[in-house]
């Protein structure tokens, strides 16, 4: 019994230490704002993290919007209110689907790449040699990647929502013959900028923070072997996905729960 | 050359993101930026406000001029007090205006319809609309119909 309790306590302390380590890494890497050279490194990372994720985001957004349009039309036309499809598509995307799906894709596309990249840097002792030169690897490697993730995901989510809404427009209006005016009109009446769009963006920002943090910490703290890097990459995707879904529930409850 | 391309594409992505956010504001949410600014509150007492929910539209001649903020019970009269916010530019509702709870379509959602009266004086912030017509409760209507049917036989 005593052994069990002490093992549990040891586990708990271990977890707490890991969390503390991760927070310290984050704080240390953000201690100094990037200077002139930092900006060009940031742009490089914006390209890797953001621009290279654009294609997968655009394609997924288009298909998700089209599916929402189709499902919404089928469901709503049973009640003779298929004009409300625009409102349904827009609210579903802006409030919920865009932030969550974009963040999940981001974790899979960009997060795993970040972990693998930093893990490999660690395995090939690039991080250690940077330190030898007196360059702080946290500042040099981790900070620009974290900032890039924080900037990119909200923008990608905005693009995701818009493309998805046009995807819904393609199906509902162009194929199924809902009147275009009621598609946009119902949407504009139902969607509120402050309550829906901004809350969606806040979700995106939180997810960006969580995913980038997890990805960078897993890479930075991985066991520097090929198995270690592979395990860290897997952990990044698993932890990020769970964190996104968990935080999504909490944020939704805070934003829309208490009416 | 390669570096130039990276910078250009990053710039493009930033612009695309901002444009997407802007069009979400204008195209999708219809520029509902000015929410509480420039609106004034009006209350109305209804015998029955069944089915009326916050955020329901308040219309004048079918045009949306405001929205319902809250539906509460008035402890003195035990009637339903509907609190509304009317857009500031609609400042010509006479004090004898009437309000009725209407339904959009047969099964659609409830909204408040205003009808302007004849007085010159206008409603100002915090005023109460006295002349109201309650929500149509389908069950009561059917009950009454059946009762009348029984009487006439």
List keywords for this structure.
heterodimer, A: mainly alpha, 0% strand, B: 153 residues, alpha/beta
Q: Could you explain how this protein is built, in words?
A:
The complex is a heterodimer of chains A (about 260) and B (about 150). Chain A has eight helices and no strands. Chain A has helices at about 1-30, 35-75, 85-125, 125-130, 135-175, 180-190, 195-220, 225-255. Chain A has a domain at about 35-60 and about 95-160 and about 190-255. Chain A is elongated and about 65 Å long. With about 260 residues, chain A is an all-alpha fold. The N and C termini of chain A lie far apart (about 45 Å). In chain A, helix 2 (about 35-75) packs antiparallel against helix 3 (about 85-125) and helix 3 (about 85-125) packs antiparallel against helix 8 (about 225-255). With about 150 residues, chain B is α/β, with parallel strands linked by helices. Chain B has two helices and eight strands; from the N terminus they run αββββββββα. Chain B has helices spanning about 1-30, 140-150; strands at about 40-45, 55-60, 65-75, 80-85, 100-105, 110-115, 130, 130-135. The radius of gyration of chain B is 23 Å and the shape is elongated. Chains A and B meet through helix 2, helix 5, helix 6 and helix 7 of A and helix 1 of B.
- Estimate the helix proportion of chain A, in percent: over 70%
Instruction: Please give the number of β-strands of chain B.
Output: 8
Task: Write down the overall geometry of chain A.
Answer: elongated
Biggest interface found: A-B, 32 and 29 residues
Portion in strands of chain A: under 5%
Q: What is the ordering of alpha helices and beta strands of chain B?
A: HEEEEEEEEH
Biggest sheet of chain B, strands in spatial order?
A: 7-1-4-3-2-6-5-8
Computed over alpha carbons, the radius of gyration of chain B is 23 Å
Biggest beta sheet summary of chain A: none
Distance between the termini of chain A: 47 Å
By helix and strand content of chain A, what is the structural category? mainly alpha
Order of helices and strands of chain A: HHHHHHHH
* Biggest β-sheet strands, sense, barrel of chain B: 8 strands, mixed
What's the overall average pLDDT of chain B, rounded?
82
Helix/strand class of chain B: alpha/beta
Q: What portion of residues of chain B is helical?
A: 25-40%
Distance linking N and C termini of chain B: 93 Å
Give me the number of helical elements of chain A: 8
């Amino acid at each position: 019994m005593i052994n069990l309790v002490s093992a549990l306590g040891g586990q708990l302390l271990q977890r707490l230490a890991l969390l503390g380590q991760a927070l310290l890494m984050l704080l240390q890497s953000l201690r100094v704002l990037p200077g002139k050279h930092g900006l060009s490194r940031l742009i490089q990372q914006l390209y890797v993290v953001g621009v290279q994720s654009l294609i997968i985001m655009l394609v997924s957004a288009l298909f998700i919007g089209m599916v929402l349009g189709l499902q919404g039309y089928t469901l709503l036309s049973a009640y003779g209110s298929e004009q409300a499809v625009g409102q349904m598509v827009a609210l579903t995307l802006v409030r919920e689907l865009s932030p969550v799906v974009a963040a999940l894709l981001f974790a899979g596309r960009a997060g795993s790449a970040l972990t693998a990249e930093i893990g490999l840097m660690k395995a090939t002792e690039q991080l250690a040699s940077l330190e030898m030169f007196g360059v702080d690897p946290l500042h040099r490697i981790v900070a620009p990647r974290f900032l890039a993730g924080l900037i990119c995901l909200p923008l990608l989510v905005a693009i995701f929502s818009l493309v998805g809404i046009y995807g819904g427009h393609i199906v509902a209006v162009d194929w199924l013959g809902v009147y275009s005016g009621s598609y946009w009109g119902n949407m504009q009446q139902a969607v509120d900028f402050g309550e829906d769009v901004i809350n969606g963006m806040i979700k995106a920002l939180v997810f960006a923070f969580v995913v980038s943090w997890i990805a960078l910490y897993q890479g930075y703290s991985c066991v520097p072997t090929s198995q270690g890097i592979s395990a860290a990459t897997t952990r990044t995707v698993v932890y990020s996905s769970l964190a996104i879904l968990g935080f999504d529930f909490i944020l939704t409850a805070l934003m829309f729960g208490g009416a | 050359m390669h570096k130039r391309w990276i910078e250009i594409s990053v710039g493009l992505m930033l612009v695309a993101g901002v444009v997407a956010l802007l069009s979400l504001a204008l195209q999708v949410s219809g520029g509902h930026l000015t929410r509480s600014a420039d609106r004034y509150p009006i209350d109305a007492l209804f015998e029955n406000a069944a089915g009326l929910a916050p955020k329901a539209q308040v219309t004048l001649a079918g045009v949306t001029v405001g929205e319902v903020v809250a539906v509460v019970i008035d402890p003195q009269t035990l009637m339903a007090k509907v609190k509304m916010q009317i857009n500031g530019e609609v400042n010509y509702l006479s004090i004898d205006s009437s309000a009725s709870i209407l339904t959009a379509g047969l099964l659609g959602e409830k909204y408040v319809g205003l009808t302007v009266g004849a007085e010159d004086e206008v409603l100002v912030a915090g005023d109460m609309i006295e002349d109201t017509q309650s929500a149509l409760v389908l069950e009561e209507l059917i009950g009454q119909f059946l009762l009348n049917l029984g009487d006439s036989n």
